[in-house]
Amino acid sequence: MTTDTAGTAPHPAHSLPPGPADRSARPRPEPGPADDERLRRWRLVLGGDSTESTGCTLTGRDAAMDGALTALYGGGGRPGGRGGSNRSAGLGASAPSVARWLGDIRTYFPSSVVQVMQRDAIDRLGLSALLLEPEMLEAVEADVHLVGTLLSLNKVMPETTKETARAVVRKVVDDLEKRLATRTRATLTGALDRSARIDRPRHHDIDWGRTIRANLKNYLPEYGTVVPERLIGYGRAAQSVKKDVILCIDQSGSMAASVVYASVFGAVLASMRTLQTRLVVFDTAVVDLTDQLDDPVDVLFGTQLGGGTDINRALAHCQSKISRPADTVVVLISDLYEGGIRDEMLKRVAAMKASGVQFVTLLALSDEGAPAYDRDHAAALGALGAPAFACTPDLFPEVMAAAIEKRPLPVPDKETHQ
């Protein structure tokens, strides 16, 4: 008779996994479609030097895509080239080759990627000068950042290019207006209606919170209710001007996207008869572009991106235009790097707020996230009750509505204005 003991051989079902020698003896599985796609993507990312290590050779459309990437991101001694890579085709300074490249990337990549690659080409390869040629502008994918670049080149742009440049800017501005105008008008019209308080409102216009607070003296404890002797509600804003809005925009080079968005919003606000809108741009000088607000393209070409910054001087101009403080909203759009008199700037903001002005500070009006800004000045403004924060274009109508109604601003990130 046999018995199991500790020394018996293990049952085959519980045998140990094979050792290294056993593994190497196993045949490797054939690579599948997923592996081929992964290698293809790595080959496109790493460039031509990776052909041997990835075992992937590109042909057809993939080879053309790789050529477009090589021209921009290849090393070749150019700024921004990939370290260690021998990609060196480059775009050179040839207008025909750049035009061909611009056409290629629009063929092989989606619009969002094309815009990124165009910005990289301008930044890395110094192609700004080529944008002064009409055929270049006709080939590029227009976006807010391209408009900013064109505005910075405005003063050196030849006459033969200006009409094409205006057409590019017009396309971007029209697209932004279609996206932003309807919601902005609807949001601000509602805010203006609600800001017009009346004492004899219709039932559906009653502001119950304010009505209850105004009638607390009429509380009847035995019934647990308040007798509303006085009703407070929202009026319907008449077509006369209800609020004054002053947009004060820093036109230093880093604020390019904000200038574009602010000009579009300025035109939308100016189209509302219940608002009186003024638009002021500044660097070390101050320019009032209010008379051009009916066409944001004219506004944009009236700006001069670059130069220093004198916020105090700009606010002094805005302050001189305020005639109804309690009905005025001032929106300062700036990174707050002040080149003027800091203490005077803060005193002006404090004086405007003390007079009843609603003061809003936006560090940026763009989709680019938190910008670089002067934190000391932002903290000082926050201490005055004017928190500084970055604002996306989609949030701007809500910010303006809150300012018009004199309620807390919808600050998206409280850490931004610390």
3D architecture notes:
This protein is α/β, with parallel strands linked by helices and 418 residues long. It has helices at residues 20-25, 33-46, 51-54, 60-73, 95-108, 111-125, 134-139, 144-152, 159-195, 208-214, 256-270, 296-301, 311-320, 342-354, 375-383, 396-405; strands at 197-198, 219-220, 225-226, 233-234, 243-250, 275-282, 286-288, 328-333, 358-365, 388-391. The chain has 16 helices and 10 strands. The strands form 3 sheets. A 6-stranded mixed beta sheet has the order 7-6-5-8-9-10. Strands 1-4 form a two-stranded antiparallel sheet. A two-stranded antiparallel ribbon has the order 2-3. Helix 11 links the parallel strand 5 and strand 6. The N and C termini lie far apart (85 Å).
Biggest sheet strand line-up: 7-6-5-8-9-10
Helix tally?
16
Give the overall form: elongated
Give the helix/strand class: alpha/beta
Report the average pLDDT across residues.
79
- Based on DSSP secondary structure assignment, what is the total number of beta strands? 10
Low confidence ranges: 1-16, 76-89
Seen as an oligomer or otherwise, the chain set is single chain
Helical content band: 40-55%
Radius of gyration: 31 Å
Main β-sheet: number of strands, strand sense, barrel status?
6 strands, mixed
Give helix and strand order, one letter per element, not per position: HHHHHHHHHEHEEEEHEEHHEHEHEH
Distance between the termini: 85 Å
Strand content: 5-15%
